[in-house]
Structures are given as structure tokens and as C-alpha cells.
Amino acid sequence: MRIIIEKDYKAMSKKAALIVASQVLLKPKSVLGLATGSTPLGMYRELIEMYKREELDLSGIKTFNLDEYYQLPPDNPQSYYYFMYNNFFNHINIKPENIRLPKGISQDVKRECEEYETAIEKAGGIDLQVLGIGENGHIGFNEPGEHLRVQTQLINLTDETINANSRFFESEDEVPRQAITMGLGSILKARRILLLANGKKKAQAIKKTVSGYLTTKCPASFLQTHPDVTLILDKEAASLLS
Ligand code: PGA
Questions:
Q1: What is the pTM of this model?
Q2: For the CA of 202, the nearest atom of ligand 1
């Protein structure tokens, strides 16, 4: 694992955007795995700026998002579909047909999950997967527990995640209890992985992520088995590393 520690959120976001941009410069038809949440917002803003300055052409990329809330329609402002268009896709020159997120309102979830895996494979696999991390060590919505899923699945969110994500909703009651997420196996198949974390609240999860131990209690710890993972942290998220 490569660990890059930056002084603050802005520096972390810039560094992440540079890595994503270099991936696209070297391979304009890159397949990118993308994440939602507050962590990657700064990175998306930097990428939009690079595109506006005509330093970056995103017309060739294909994207797959990590996850989507179950039964939130795309026009719901809390859906990840809405998030991605609002915060990134609407501001760059990506082709709409090259954008894919799990369909939260799918009638046949099992089929949707299978088709998602197939679509990633058909695209040639993910070149660079961007990840945030939950305070509980989840990546995507692969929550800590007895077992971790290999492939894209419908999962139950933990109380911790429902509580952490309630800040985006009017009340905790409105947070969906289930989501479709790429599995840990789907994530680990990516050729390169970039995980971003900032703030003190993430320090414990980051410590477990690089601990030298694998545990389903911290799904991100399995990233230690991947040959090309880069963590970009701000000082606070890195504060428990020796
Ligand atoms: P956050 O979420 O970026 O909003 O902290 C990260 C996550 O839960 O994966």
C-alpha cells in the first residue's frame, strides 16, 4: 500500500484529481469506478476545473459507481444517481451512455446485480477504482459483519451507517435501510485502487485498514491483499498511524 499524507482536505482532493487525471491522460478510454459521499466532492470539483481549463478530456471514459440506495429513484436528491449528475457528470463531457450506477429501483434486484457485474466485465474491468471509507471501515456499502460479499448485492445497512448518513436526510427515519453495492470481490478486481479519507472520524478505520490483519470487522482491511492501492489521507485521518 502506498500512503500519501496531505496537509488538508483541499490538498488531498487535488492529489486525488491528479491521479485520476493521469489515469485518463494515459488511457483516454479508462474505466473508472466512482464513489459518492462528502469525501470525493473536492476531487470532483478539481476534475471539473481541469476539464474547464481544457486540460482534461473525459469524453472517452466509462464509469461504474460503487453503490446506490435501494428504492430511491434517480430523481430523488438523496439518490447517488442524483449526486453524481449534480456534482460531476453534468459538468464534464462524459457520454451519457458511458455512465452506469446500480439501479436502486430495479424490479428484479438479483438480475440487476448480475447485469452490473457483467457490464463491468464487458467494459474490460475497472482500471481505477476511487473509494471513500466509512467510520466503521466499510467500502462501498460492504458493511462490517460475519461475512463479506464477493459480488454486487443488495445489503442491509448497519445502524452506524444509517446514523452517519442521516446528515444528508431530513431525519434518520428517511435513510433507506438497504442498498445495492459492488461486492468486495468486485472492488478488488480493479487494476488500481485509490482510497481517500479525511478527518479525525476516519482515523480508527484507516489504522485498521493498514494494520497487517484482515478482518471482516473492517472490510477495508482486505485492500491490503491488492497489489496497487494508494491511500490519500489528510493529517487527521492519518493521525493514528505510526
Ligand atoms: P463520506 O462517506 O465520504 O461521506 O464520509 C464515506 C463512506 O461512507 O464510504
A1: 0.97
A2: 5
> Which one, of 192, 122, 187, 123, lies nearest residue 153 by Cα?
187
Residue 242's pLDDT band (cuts 50, 70, 90): confident
- Averaged over 123-143, what is the pLDDT? 97
39 Cβ inside 6 Å of ligand 1: yes
Position 16 pLDDT exceeds 90: yes
Residue nearest atom 2 of ligand 1, based on CA coordinates: 37
CB burial of residue 204 (10 Å; 0-12, 13-18, 19+): middle
Split at pLDDT 50, 70, 90, the class of 163 is very high
**Region class of 137: left (phi > 0), else alpha (psi between -120 and 50), else beta:** left
Looking at residue 98, its amino acid is N
Beta carbons within 8 Å of 37's beta carbon, 6+ residues apart:
132
CA atoms within 13 A on the CB side of 160: 13
pLDDT at 140: 97
